[in-house]
Amino acid sequence: MEARLNVMASPVAAKALKHLIAAGQVLKESSLPSATQELVKIRASQINGCSGCLDMHTKEAAAAGETSLRLNLIAAWREATVFTDAERAALELTEEGTRIADGAGGVPDAVWANAAQHYDEDQLSALVTLILVINAFNRGNVITQQPAGSYQVGQLAPAS
Which residues form the Carboxymuconolactone decarboxylase-like domain (predicted)? Predict the structure, then answer.
């Protein structure tokens, strides 16, 4: 499979995407646990059918020590016993924030209240921003049919 478009070859798209990539880097430095961040990215990517992001984030999570059991159960997190209550709250907020058009009135208050029980205001801000960023990446990758399977861990790490 070949991508429909190389957006990084476009001066305008590349410039805009660099800001989105930078936002993702800022989130890595937040107090939101890195394991939770990867779970969120994977779950949103599953919902959106983004193979490129699934390739990247499952490999990055595994390299960071995430177990195959937990990675394999993300899509069924409601029935799985391997996630903490905080992670479950983050996954629920991710689903509701990703499927916003499917719900009447957006993210339910109960979902927000549950997340707020587990995360402080800075972490909630990071979580909301992370959901926003991964959904933007997912949509761009799906629209342009970015291929998956060849991602190498650390491939897109910022240059030092």
Answer: 23-96
